[in-house]
Structures are given as structure tokens and as C-alpha cells.
């Protein structure tokens, strides 16, 4: 299934045959755009399926699942959690809020995340008040944001009475305000980034709104350089895709780029050559607001995200051109000529990408030097070009056009 996103750009689905059929000689597509098992269907378990591709992972929780899935398919993964889940060193505040909810016996309980529900009840159980918490909700109407929150609730032995229409906190609050009378006692389990706007909507209509936060998001500290290296890799187009599983993680990446004074460069990269992949519409929202068109699975699940990334990279981000030396295929950081595959270093890759996209047309020395960016000059470009030729080891593939530049021998 495919559909148009808020900007009218195509967003691929994750079902069988979801992505559009690839153009075998296409230029870069420029589409920047209960706990489940994340294994995907058999055709997507090829060990070298993602060989050559470089993927950034920004998530903290369950990041190992994503990383393992991509690495098992041959990708090189850069992990830089832009936010981390923080649990209180002592769960005193969480237990205090839990006891307040137990005493209040709310009319409605809103559950927003499966992980949050599970952790909440585990902490209560460890403190000896788990059964009291379950009993307090015996007559409570429980509404859930999505299937994972439903799975968390049912794992406690409780049952929910309904789910939000679009798996967002806003739509969950919409449901409460539309279907239930005002003046009730409402409990809400919030996730790592509390949405105060939605809490205020509830407070405006109901007698008491009691909040419990089993975990929260915190920004990485300055001693963790991984986020800054991720920003640099995106800006220099040294990644093919970056995955996002929460909106706060997107905002944190943008904030890091602003602090490095490269926000516009980051946005430009994600709008063009670096694919942004988001797990669902809430995560996509800040990307879309920044003018980025992310790919997004039709099912907002980790397994669907993995499958979509695999499909998209294979079908849209392999660049091919026929030459006198055979078919040249550029997939991520690997170039294949005939049956031979070689890994290219960053500067050689930048030059090769420019030559492949020119499809035999001459690329000037100035344009190649400009493509290298940074403090590169003609000499640095010539050194990189020489190394490219040595690495390819295919005489005549990269031809010199005297006084004009360089081209592939098509």
C-alpha cells in the first residue's frame, strides 16, 4: 500500500509488495523520506540484503532489536540514542502517585504505553501493593492508546473498554471528552515525554486528573559524543537511512544540530539523500513539520519498520549505470562492477556517487571539489580520485576529460 503524506509525498507501506517497483537504472529516488516479535517474512532474511548500506538508530529502548535486525542483513549501524529512558534512582514519586490512584479509585484510566504499564505494575508488585493497584481498577473504565498498551493492561489481568482511533494520546483524550460525562476522576499513565496540552484538556473537563509516570525521557549529556557524530554523518551523507521511534528523539536530534550550528545542513540531508524512517505518524510529525518526508509503515510496529527500511533501501536507493566495463551498482558505501564488490572510503564514495549520477556526462573538477565540502581543494580532490581508481582496480572506468573534468566510461 502506498499513500500520500501531509506534504503530498509518497509514503511506502510495509505490506507485501508495498513499495513501488524499482527502476533498474533509476537515479537516486530522493524519498527522504503486546511486545511483538520483530522478525519479518522469509524473503527479508537474506544475510547480505543490506550489505553496503549505513543506518543510523536513534532509539534507546529496544535499540538492540533494531541493530541486530539490520546487522544480520549486512548493514553497518551507527547507534546514537538521542534520548534515554531514565528511571528514578528511587521509585518513591512513582509509588506515591500509585497510592494516590489506589485511594482515588478513578472512574477512567488511560493507558498510553505497554512498557509504561508493565513497569508501573512491576514496581507496585515489588513494593507489595500490586494487588491493591489491580483491585483499585476493578470497576474502572480502562481506555488504551494502542495495541501495546492493551497488551500491557491485559498482562496485569485487567481488561480495557476501548482503544483510541489513531493510536495517539490526543485521540485517546478525544475519546474521553466525546464519550464520557464531565466531572469524573481520571487517571492517566503517561509516557516519557508528558503531553501537557492533553492533560490540560482533561483537567478542563474533569474533577481530578491523576498522573503517573513510570519512566521519563532525558537528553544525552555532553560527554556522549555519539549524537554529535550521528549529526555529522547525516550532514556529510555518510548514512543512507536514519530510524526514529519517538517524536522526542527527533526533537533531540534537531536540538543537537542547532547546538552544532548545522541545523539547516541536517534538514537538507534528510530532505534529499538520507532517508528518514519513522515508526508511525506521531513520530513522523516533527519531521514533516521540518519539511522532511519520512517513510512510514502502515502498521506502526517495529517489525513493520524494519521490513519497510529493507524494502526501501533495496528498491529505491541502489544506483545503477551501464558502462563499457559492465554494470556499475552503487549500494550505500559499496560499489559493484560486474561480480566484484569493494567498500569505498567516504571521499572516494562522494566522488563515485557524483560520477554515477552524471551517467557518463562530464563532472567538472570544481564540482567534484565542491561535493567533497569541508576544506577540500583541487589537490585533495585529485588524491581522492586517485585512491578511487586504485580501489576500483578497473582501468578506464573513470576517464579523464582534458581541461574539463572526469566521467564514467559508459
UniProtKB/TrEMBL annotation:
The keyword DNA-binding applies. It is an enzyme of class 4 (lyase). It comes from the Bacteria. Residues 1-29 are annotated as: Disordered. Keywords: DNA-binding, Lyase. PANTHER family: BLR5956 PROTEIN (PTHR40082). This is Uroporphyrinogen-III synthase. It comes from Cryobacterium suzukii. The lineage of its organism: Bacteria, Bacillati, Actinomycetota, Actinomycetes, Micrococcales.
